[in-house]
Specification:
Length: about 120
């Protein structure tokens, strides 16, 4: 099942304007879209959201896991990935820039949705 293409600039602006509340919805939607598209049962968007809220180290793990799942989706649609963005996303998350990591993940997901019929 194809997920929703989201404009990255809009998501970032709404996250900043709502003091992070939109970002929580955005995180949930990314997890949900990945779960549905990949048919994974080990991804629970609600649990992922709760753990990210309660434990910042889990948010770093979520960035890692989501980046790897997006790479899996890229393979499914035939997008050749010449660069691994995992390390970049983790470094950004460690320094508190999870929103930038989410933007990179969303950009990669938008590429998947563009190739999905």
């Amino acid at each position: 099942m194809k997920g929703d293409t989201r404009p990255i600039a809009t998501a970032i602006i709404l996250t900043i304007v709502t003091c992070g509340i939109y970002g929580l919805f955005w995180l949930y939607w990314i997890s949900r879209d990945l779960r549905n598209y990949l048919g994974r049962t080990d991804v629970s968007p609600g649990t992922e959201l709760l753990l990210c809220i309660l434990c910042f180290p889990y948010a770093i793990y979520w960035v890692y896991k989501s980046t790897k799942l997006v790479q899996e989706a890229h393979v499914m649609v035939g997008i050749e990935t010449t660069e691994d963005k995992t390390v970049l996303n983790i470094i950004l998350a460690v320094f508190g820039l999870v929103i930038v990591s989410m933007a990179i993940i969303q950009d990669d997901l938008n590429a998947v949705w563009a190739r999905t019929p």
